[in-house]
Amino acid sequence: MRHWLAALSLALLSGCAQVGYLGQAVGGHLELLAKAKPVDEWLAQPDLAPALRERLALSQQMREFAVRELALPDNASYRRYADLQRPAVVWNVVAAPELSLQLKTWCYPLMGCAGYRGFFAREQAEALAAELRGQGWDVWVYGVPAYSTLGWTNWLGGDPLLSTFIRYPEPELAGLIFHELAHQVLYVADDTAFNESYASAVEQLGLRAWLAQRGAQGPVDAAAHAQRQQRRAEFQALTARYRQQLDALYRSRLVPQAQRERKAELLAALRAEHAALRDGPWGGDKRYDTWMAGASNASLAIQAAYSDLTPGFVALFERQQRDWGRFHAEVRRLAALPPEQRRRELGDDVSKTEPQP
User: Fold this and answer.
1) Does residue 3 lie within any of the structural domains?
2) 48 domain residue, yes or no
3) Which of 152, 148, 132 is nearest to 140 (CA)?
4) Under 8 Å between Cβ of 143 and 137
5) CA-to-CA distance for 202 and 196, rounded, in angstroms?
6) Does residue 294 sit within a domain?
7) Engineering a disulfide at 77: which of 10, 22, 159, 338 sits with its beta carbon 3.0 to 4.6 angstroms away?
8) Which tens digit of pLDDT belongs to each residue from 59-80?
9) Number of domains within the chain
10) Are 290 and 297 in contact (CB under 8 A)?
11) Could you give the CA distance from residue 239 to residue 216 in angstroms, rounded to a whole number?
């Protein structure tokens, strides 16, 4: 979960709170762009660290692959690099009601509503989180390494490569670039799950194609990547199972206090199962410890937005004979349909309630 869509339409907003929020978004993005330089300029520096040189050069191979093989946009994005000297580019706030898995949404001109709100300063994200907790919401704050401006800022140099992710293992770096570029192909206002699941499918399918091409070229640690993928799949299956149980609980006729008690039991059981996986088959792998420490309706709900529709998009790709141009065109067709119909065509359960405003 690594993605924040910058709303850059400040002039269209009214209200001090909205203007203040968009002000930090515009200012933060412009500061980021000011730090970015073309990759070729970085590579021309004789004292550039060898590991960074290798990664920047590899990123441009991924960028060209995305255009040539995945029919992703050929534009200015991910051809520049910025060293931010911080662990995340933005911090997202997500929230859900105490007894529901429906994300709270925030709405913006042009881009519509999204199930998260991002800040370039962690302190601002934590301040909003504290306010929401005071109102009774379940809240999660997390740092993300990259976000997309949907191609709106390509005239300013586009979305740059960042120090927050450039040193990822090769498969993760490729997947992230493919994911973010997918958002420049298509963005549907007011439908976080559709947007994120589509980008996740492009990430998954594009990475598969990238690794197949790399083959003997390497160096890709195939065993390490397969292990990461397996553990990710096990983590997603585990959380999906508890998400389903919580959803059934919240739809039940139990009184609120009984639901609260059962919710606490389920979250404790989720953490216990994860600990058993971590300390047993995973050999002490702690990569999901931070997520588990903050497990809540909010974190479970945003995770679903990135994964629930992804299998439907993967199946759609197969129905288009694995032709990327046809696949993107078919996704655009779905995007023009009413939300319930597009979900039905992707095989989703359309009985879910609307997001919380």
Assistant:
1) no
2) yes
3) 132
4) no
5) 10
6) yes
7) 159
8) 999 999 999 999 999 999 999 9
9) 1
10) no
11) 35
